[in-house]
């Protein structure tokens, strides 16, 4: 955890964290300005929180005024997920996820719900815009190495336990249950529009961020890299393989490190390598196919 916090305050990671936080603002704006006013529900954990909020208002007559209490519910549900996240993702990603989840909660609570539709008398357009805007926000947060919590954490844990499954399968299963509840509690129109929001959101995320773009990295170094190995495994939560080699031209002893990881973890890896050996030789090969015991990440 300490290594993750220390890495967070590097100049590069501060910029990436700021970008992730901006993504949470865009996400919350899409939800509160377009989706909530038309009375439909986004997918995943947030959709569940919105249904709980509606039940509290409709059946228990709880008044939240112009603000959306779903953000507070979202944070409460994420508290036990944080403990799960600590075991399933790199320390830096975990710290940024906690920060981004707090930011999502704040923005969802602080951004007031409009009294009237921003696109008047057009529910479908509001659903599409809201889904796209929230998806762009989520995608930006993922690109910057963060996560808004919720299904991201559950999906990662499920992938670790069932190697052949993907995060998308988990999200699909949760959304099937969610929209069945929408249909049972409300009506078919609400369920259909909610599905449209989820589809638009997913397409927007996929345009910005593709999960599990596997990258093969080989690092050749003549320095003592034992501390690099420790920092790499603790901060990124991945393993590596190394060989002792001899250079054919120089006849000097070196080490080769062989690593498979996500495309979006390469920048963090490169930063770590340069920290301990500014002259290390790094070879990156994108789009490799990996079978077997390999941890998929967002």
TrEMBL record:
GO CC terms of this entry: plasma membrane
Transmembrane segments: 20-44, 64-86, 98-119, 139-160, 172-200
Membrane topology (UniProt): Multi-pass membrane protein
Alphabetic keyword roster: Cell membrane, Membrane, Transmembrane, Transmembrane helix
A Pfam family recorded for this sequence: DUF2179
Coiled coil segments of this chain: none
Gene3D superfamilies: 3.30.70.120
Superkingdom per UniProt: Bacteria
InterPro entries in alphabetical order: DUF2179, N-reg_PII/ATP_PRibTrfase_C, UPF0750_membrane, YitT
Domain DUF2179 span(s) in chain numbering: 238-292
Subcellular location: Cell membrane
Protein's UniProt name: Uncharacterized membrane-anchored protein YitT, contains DUF161 and DUF2179 domains
Organism: Sporobacter termitidis DSM 10068
